């Protein structure tokens, strides 16, 4: 679709206006849209992914933590980046930031990707170990539950599986 | 040395037009974002920490060379290259513009064929990239994967069992993969359908942008289609999704080309030959004008309207006429006016040469 104004560039700004139930559509290129002051459009010249992300973050409803509490601005113990820094620049300081800010990261990742669960490639050398360790952790939790509920037979099975994994890792 | 060759040679391994549907899909690219566990990322790292990353990755690349996974790769700090040389690497898509902004601790490893590059200390510690001719993101991913495995033998990657590879920007978390295809879509642009078709890809988790030019303008009608989502899907799913959408766009472009031929063959012939005429005779050519005219000629060649120009020549012209390469080949810094004059001369020469061959 070409811009309705200049009829040269491809239209990338699509406006739908509904006034008194009258719907009108207009398709413009970025340049013409900018020229038309009446559209009340301000185009950010430095429109980068980081700005966009920062916007997404600043827009978040802080229902997970009450506002104003100092904990809301936690600091990564590894690199020293504050959560508020991350919000501003849209980039973490190191891989540990993901752990430190995990509670906030999960919803953010779901917003960006529609998912927060990696199902792709796992690093050969370190990744499998990591996955096994995580599995062992999960089994341990299950084991604790079983013991609590006095399901000793199942608990014994779990214990053996955990032992097996631990042996594998070492 | 690989780098010297890549800097001076015209045609890299992915530019020979040998890949599938190379007449519309000029090239495919896959890049993986990887980081070293717990080390500060380039944007906050101090000099010493940046050096540490360079040393660790340098070792891993030496090991990669010993294994021969990607053939011999040359590892060089960007600071050791002239500004012009750096720019040539950008024009050849081996280095991102962002890496040039990265300061003194940036480096790149490049293979002999000019198809593989590993950028160090860009936004992430590592960016592993592979370029292929035509519609071959699968092959590009296969090669990136092998290099990734090799490097991982020596590097402790930042990885989380739940959310995958950890990257500087959360938009790359998970697989860290960005796969893209460069598409030449002159017929869709000509009939005014490019915006509509490309607008819908956003709903499929893909993004599209002009390869050259500013904002939405796609100079030379070359668009880059890439995945946006990196988490919650396997690399294979992401690649297959991209290929499937690219194939549909390619079909639409082909249909538009057939329609144009049927409804106005003479008009189209006139257009592409006029462009050919300008390119083979002009004395001053801006890069913007050159890109548009190249697009016409490429269309003419694809449709058999201009029989005597081959795809390699067209791909080489894209490199040859880039501002940095132009100056590098001439061995001198030039003003933009001088570049436009030089560009016209180079194109005339190349087309005349092509005719003889």
Structural class of chain A: mainly alpha
**What are the secondary-structure elements of chain B, in order, as H or E?**
HEHEHHEEEHEEEHHEEHHHHH
Strand content of chain A: 5-15%
- Which strand order spans the largest sheet of chain A, edge to edge or round the barrel? 1-2
Radius of gyration of chain B: 21 Å
Count of extended strands of chain B: 10
Total helical segments of chain B: 12
Mean pLDDT metric of chain B: 92
Strand content of chain B: 15-25%
Descriptive report:
The complex is a heterodimer of chains A (about 170) and B (about 350). By secondary structure, chain A is mainly α. Chain A is about 45% helix and about 10% strand. In chain A, a hairpin with a 2-residue loop joins strand 1 and strand 2. Chain A has 7 helices and 2 strands; from the N terminus they run E-E-H-H-H-H-H-H-H. Chain A is elongated, with a radius of gyration of 26 Å. In chain A, strands 1-2 form a two-stranded antiparallel ribbon. In chain A, helix 2 packs across helix 3 and helix 6 packs antiparallel against helix 7. The termini of chain A are far apart. Chain B is of the alpha+beta class and about 350 residues long. Chain B has 2 domains: about 250 residues, Glutamine synthetase/guanido kinase, catalytic domain (Creatine Kinase, Chain A, domain 2); about 90 residues. In chain B, about 50% of the residues lie in helices and about 15% in strands. In chain B, the strands form 2 sheets. In chain B, strands 2-3-4-5-1-8-10-9 form an 8-stranded antiparallel β-sheet. Chain B has a two-stranded antiparallel ribbon with strand order 6-7. The longest helix of chain B is centred in the C-terminal third of the chain and has 47 residues. Chain B is globular. Classes of the chains: A mainly alpha (about 170), B alpha+beta (about 350). At the A-B interface, helix 2, helix 4, helix 5 and helix 6 of A face helix 5, strand 6, strand 7 and helix 7 of B.
């Amino acid at each position: 679709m070409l811009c309705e104004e200049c009829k040269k560039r491809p239209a990338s700004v699509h406006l739908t206006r509904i006034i008194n139930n009258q719907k009108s559509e207009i398709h413009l290129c970025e340049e013409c849209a900018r020229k038309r002051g009446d559209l009340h459009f301000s185009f950010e010249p430095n429109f980068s992914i980081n700005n966009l992300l920062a916007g997404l973050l600043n827009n978040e409803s802080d229902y997970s933590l009450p506002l104003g509490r100092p904990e809301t601005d936690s600091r990564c113990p590894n690199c020293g980046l504050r959560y508020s820094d991350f919000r501003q620049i849209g980039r973490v300081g190191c891989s540990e930031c993901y752990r430190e800010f995990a509670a906030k990261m999960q919803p953010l990742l779901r917003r960006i990707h529609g998912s927060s669960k990696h199902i792709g490639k796992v690093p050969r050398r370190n990744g499998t170990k990591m996955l096994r360790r995580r599995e062992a952790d999960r089994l341990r939790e299950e084991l604790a539950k079983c013991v609590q509920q006095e399901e000793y037979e199942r608990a014994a099975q779990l214990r053996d599986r955990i032992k097996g994994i631990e042996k594998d890792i070492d | 040395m690989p780098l010297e060759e890549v800097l001076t040679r015209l045609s890299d391994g992915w530019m020979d037009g040998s890949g599938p549907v190379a007449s519309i899909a000029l090239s495919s690219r896959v890049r993986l974002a990887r980081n070293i566990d717990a080390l500060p990322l380039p944007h906050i790292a101090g000099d010493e920490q940046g050096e540490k990353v360079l040393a660790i990755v340098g070792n891993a690349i030496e090991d990669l060379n010993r294994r021969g996974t990607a053939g011999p790769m040359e590892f060089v700090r960007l600071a050791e290259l002239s500004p012009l040389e750096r720019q040539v690497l950008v024009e050849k898509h081996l280095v991102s513009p962002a890496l040039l902004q990265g300061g003194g601790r940036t480096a790149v490893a490049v293979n002999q064929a000019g198809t593989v590059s590993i950028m160090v200390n860009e936004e992430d510690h590592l960016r592993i990239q592979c370029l292929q001719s035509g519609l071959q993101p699968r092959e590009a991913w296969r090669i990136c994967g092998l290099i990734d495995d090799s490097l991982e033998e020596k590097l402790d990657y930042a990885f989380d069992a739940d959310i995958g590879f950890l990257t500087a920007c959360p938009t790359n978390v998970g697989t860290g993969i960005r796969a893209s295809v460069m598409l030449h879509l002159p017929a869709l642009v000509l009939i005014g359908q490019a915006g509509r078709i490309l607008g819908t890809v956003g709903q499929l988790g893909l993004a599209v942008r002009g390869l050259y030019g500013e904002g939405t303008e796609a100079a030379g009608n070359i668009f880059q289609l890439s995945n946006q989502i990196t988490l919650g899907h396997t690399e294979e799913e992401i690649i297959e999704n991209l290929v499937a959408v690219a194939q549909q766009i390619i079909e639409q472009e082909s249909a538009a080309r057939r329609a144009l031929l049927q409804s106005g063959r003479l008009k189209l012939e006139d257009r592409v030959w006029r462009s050919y005429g300008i390119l083979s005779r002009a004395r001053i050519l801006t890069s913007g004008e050159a890109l548009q005219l190249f697009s016409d000629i490429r269309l003419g060649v694809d449709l058999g309207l201009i029989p005597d120009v081959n795809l390699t020549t067209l791909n080489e012209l894209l490199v040859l006429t880039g501002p940095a390469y132009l100056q590098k080949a001439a061995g001198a810094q030039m003003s933009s006016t001088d570049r436009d004059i030089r560009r016209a001369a180079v194109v005339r020469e190349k087309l005349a040469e092509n005719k003889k061959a």
